[in-house]
Predict the 3D structure of the following.
Amino acid sequence: MLLPRSRHLVSPVEARILALAAGGVTTAQIAKSVGLTADGVNYHLQRMSRRWRMPNRTALVARAYVLGVLKPAAWPPEPA
C-alpha cells in the first residue's frame, strides 16, 4: 500500500506530466511541453497507472492528488 507521502515515487518529469494531464492538456501538448514524444508521455502515464493500479488517466490524476503528488489548491495544477 502506498503512503500519503509517496511523492518520491514519481520523477519530476512524471509529476509535470500528471500536472498537465490534470489540467486537461492533450498528450501531444504534454509531449511538447516536457520535451518528449507522445509515445514517451504515454509510457510514463502507463507506468504510473500500473504502479498505482489505476485503470485510466482520470483515476491516475485523482490518485496523484490523494497521494500529494499534485498541489490540491492550485490552478492550473502543479506538482507539490
